[in-house]
Amino acid sequence: MTARAVVDDRSRGTALTLDKAVLRHLGAGGPRFTGYPTSEHFTADFSEADLTAALARSNASEHALSIYVHLPFCRHSCHHCARPSLTTQDTRRSESYLSRLDREMLLTSRHLDSTREVSRLHWGGGTPSFLTLNQMSDLVDRIDARFGLSNSHHRDYSIKVDPRDADVFTLRHLQALGFNRLSLSVLDLDVRVQHAINRYQPRVLTEQLIDEAHRLGFRSLGLELMHGLPGQTRESLAETLEQVLAMAPARLSLLPYSHRPAHFPPQRRIRAEELPSPDEQLAILDTALAMLADAGYVHIGMELFARGDDPLAKAQVQGQLSRGLAGYSALPSGDQLGLGVGALSRIGGIAARNPLALSDYAARLDAGHLPVAQGLVLSDDDHLRAYAIERLMCDMSLDLSLLDEEFGGDADRRHLAVALARLAPAERDGLLRRGDQYLKVTPVGRLLVHHLAKAFDARAGG
To answer: pTM of the full predicted structure?
Structure first.
């Protein structure tokens, strides 16, 4: 598909008008659309044979391979956490998991062309930096042996790092292994907020890692902050953000905290009365957005911001930004293979997910089977909607005539009439502008673009 030039109207420094409706949507959760259809619509009718056929089918494509490795271990139990991670202090518990991960790679690689290079690699979780340096080396060696890692300067190899589990030697080791992009989880530097979420993380830990990452020449460094945490105020968040901006990260995520203790047991240790009031949450977000804009950061979409010289910002202006299992990327979309418990794959015209329970994942592999639990064979309508969702979330606009060009005839009217009608309230709320042949997300709408994209989700009633 051809690249498109996207009008850059991100309006750095422009004040946004936020209201409580925006805040309500931010805390509502919902799909992140790292792929369509979302996993909640997968079916157990999908078989291992469907997956192996898709793997073989993908060899005929010209797409490079993208691999996501899920490492579900954490050393710490943070009260805000909404991830199904295994908290442990014993790295030996990860050995059996890594062994089964290698078994999955071996079974999978038998169906893939060995000449395909891995252009994108992402380790997430959990906390991948939980692994020892030797375990990291062994895992990289095994991925290379099974699939073939790229030596290209343009590869995108990223890993999520907890500063409490890492030091300068960790970063040097990661660089030697081929990683060129880091994401550091910070959340908040205020000691009172850290105490409230059981995440003590002195500023010096983060500063040391950032200084070393810059010295080593990592291509891109991202920091994760969170707004709406217990004990947080507009003043405390502003102080944290001022310190973070002085560290000059290339990318910065401003994640909304969603308090759902009924679903996420660790959050039961957070008292609701300690959370910022709705008015204070709006003020916190307003303050953060203004500071990021004044510092020259471009709002890529949802919680992600980047400096104007970052590859993500450049790719968005050029209409070449993509979105996959690891989020936004400056590289083209391609076949995406997920490895590990609960991992998602989108490859060869299918979408699939591994078992969510570690015991089920292990049992499938121990029986000699690929650990696929659910999936879907994608229809033509799925492909059209996936394309529309990705372009809206990446370009912050959607050229409806381009849908006709890519998928034939009056594709937008045949497939998306209901979706377009569902966007009318968003247009009235100022999140979206609509013309005869285009949709344009407003600056405020960038915060909620995943909610706008949900209108195109036919399987959820779109």
So the answer is: 0.92
